[in-house]
Amino acid sequence: MHTREEKLKAFGRLLDVQHRLRVECPWDRKQTNESLRPNTIEEVFELADALMKDDCKNVSKELGDVMEHVMFYSLIGEETGDFDIADVCNQEADKLMFRHPFINWKQEQGNWGIDNKPFTVSCSEMEINEQGQAVYKDVSGTLADKPKTAGEVEQTWEQIKQKEKDGNESVLSGVPDALPSIIKAYRIQDKARNVGFDWKQKEDVWTKVREELEELEVELKKENKENSTKELGDFLFSVINAARLYHLNPDNALEHTNKKFIYRFNYIEQKVKEAGKQLKNLTLAEMDELWNEAKEMEKGRKD
Asked: Is 0.85 topped by the overall pTM?
């Protein structure tokens, strides 16, 4: 792996490349925040796909693409005089430090714990002054309940966020409107959990899931599309809630099933082509037989 100096040099090299492209490349020169946005969304989804496949080579590649977009937006911000990449990095560092007050962020001999020199882990306190700058006060040993687990850290996360300057006005205001629905539902529920709004026993959620399913079935029998849609939403929300309580990621789970379905259906399609037939001419029983063959073929296969 690379040293800290090598990492900084690489970051600076990419920054120089992006600056030059903005000046000398016609395509880069014409880009705006609005025109870049669809490309950014695509890059993030490509990264998400590589992460799901645990494809380290492509994860590295797609991370570079996403980083390039971060630099591009920062360069546009610099041109308008609003912010630059240093502001982006410093604001993120300040935010992370503020949200982890149980770590001593006092800088020692110009080192921040990089390259095998760990951070000093003790209590500290940070405030944001009127200029939006981080102000640190060493209070080692004064925090009685230092979090010991990731779960304990999460429980105080939302309260800390709301103390920040320009922080979220409410617990759920930090959930982006544009998030995909499954992820959005999970994040809403998780944020509510962080302030104590949750089932006392995770098993209790199944009563709610069954209740929502029954209400959906009632509306479906009535063939009331509007009410059925509402009840379907309630049912899906309750299933996502159950997944969260059992520490399962519903979005990842559904994506695994999507890939599994694609593999099996592609198998059916390929076998039909090899037989010189067409899918539309097969009976459901024949397709089901090929489906079961695909299930046997994929045993031991990594999604």
From this structure: no
